[in-house]
Each structure stands twice: as C-alpha cells, then as structure tokens.
C-alpha cells in the first residue's frame, strides 16, 4: 500500500516500474546499468481516485498522459536506481496532491459606480479630442 496523500492510498500493484538506461553523466556505468525509472500509473482504472480528481490529474499531466489514461513519469536525475525510483514516486505524490485540491470558484463581481463614472469620463474626453480633430477646416 502506497500512501500518496493523507486521504489517498493505492495498491502496490497499481504502479508499474520499468528500468531503462539513463542519459547524461555516469561514465562507464551509464552504458551498463539501467538506472532511470519509468513509472506507469493507470489513472482511469484506479479505484482510489474519485472522478473530479482523475479529471484534474489528466489536465495536470498533459503530455505525460497516454490515450489509455496511463500516467508515465520518467526519472533519471540520480545515478542510482533507488534514487530515481524515489524521485518518480515523489513526483507522483505531488501531482496527486495538487489534483486533490479543488479549484477555487470564481466569484462574479460588478464594477463600482466610481469605476463606471471614470470610464464614461475618459470616453467623453477621447470623443472630445476626436471631434476637435474632425471639425478643423482643411487648408
């Protein structure tokens, strides 16, 4: 059982990890050992997530989400397999935690009387300037 947030925990079987060769520094080690991790989590099939959280998670994931609804996180920041595994899991936790928070609803506001008056005054000034330009006789 993996605890993603205080309210959400998922089964170990819901996460699939695949180790691949990482690019970047590492000397001969980089050509021999598969240290990078590709973490896969099927968002659509997960019973731990509610509908709104799934929707927000899909939006947050962007190009990291496949058409089938699988979230793919690739981690190759560290030279060790264990470090990359922890990094990928931490990034998944952060994404789910961000998706768990519902967006703040927009509160409609109306312009104040003073704001309306100011707008009308500036419109009048602009109209006066344009009228002055128009009424000048041509020479």
Description:
The protein is an alpha+beta fold and 139 residues long. The chain has a single domain (2-100), classed as 2-Layer Sandwich (Double Stranded RNA Binding Domain), CATH 3.30.160. The protein is 42% helix and 17% strand. The chain has four helices and five strands. The strands form two sheets. A three-stranded antiparallel β-sheet has the order 3-4-5, with helices on one face. The longest helix is centred in the last third of the chain and has 23 residues, at 113-135. The termini are far apart. The mean pLDDT is 83.
Strand order of the largest sheet: 3-4-5
- Report the average pLDDT across residues: 83
* Count of beta strands: 5
Query: In percent terms, what proportion of residues is strand?
Result: 15-25%
Q: What is the rounded Rg?
A: 28 Å
Low-confidence stretches: none
CATH architecture: 2-Layer Sandwich
CATH domain topology: Double Stranded RNA Binding Domain
Helix percent reads 40-55%
The largest sheet is: 3 strands, antiparallel
CA-to-CA gap between the ends? 88 Å
Order of helices and strands: EEEHEHEHH
What does this entry show, briefly?
This protein is α+β, with helices and mostly antiparallel strands.
Helix-strand blueprint:
Elements: E1 2-3, E2 9-10, E3 15-20, H1 29-32, E4 36-42, H2 51-61, E5 70-75, H3 81-100, H4 113-135
Antiparallel strand pairs: 1-2, 3-4, 4-5
Key descriptive features of the protein:
single chain, 139 residues, Double Stranded RNA Binding Domain, two-stranded antiparallel ribbon, 5 strands, 17% strand, elongated
């Amino acid at each position: 059982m993996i605890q993603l947030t205080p309210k959400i925990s998922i089964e170990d079987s819901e996460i699939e990890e695949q180790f691949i060769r990482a690019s970047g520094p590492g000397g001969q080690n980089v050509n021999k050992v598969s240290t990078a991790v590709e973490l896969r989590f099927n968002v659509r099939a997960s019973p731990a997530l509610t509908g709104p959280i799934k929707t927000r998670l899909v939006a947050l994931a962007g190009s990291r989400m496949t058409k089938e609804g699988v979230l793919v996180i690739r981690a190759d920041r560290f030279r060790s397999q264990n470090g990359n595994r922890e990094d990928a899991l931490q990034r998944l936790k952060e994404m789910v935690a961000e998706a768990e928070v519902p967006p703040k609803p927009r509160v409609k506001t109306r312009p104040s009387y003073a704001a309306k008056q100011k707008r009308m005054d500036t419109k009048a000034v602009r109209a006066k300037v344009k009228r002055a330009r128009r009424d000048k006789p041509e020479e």
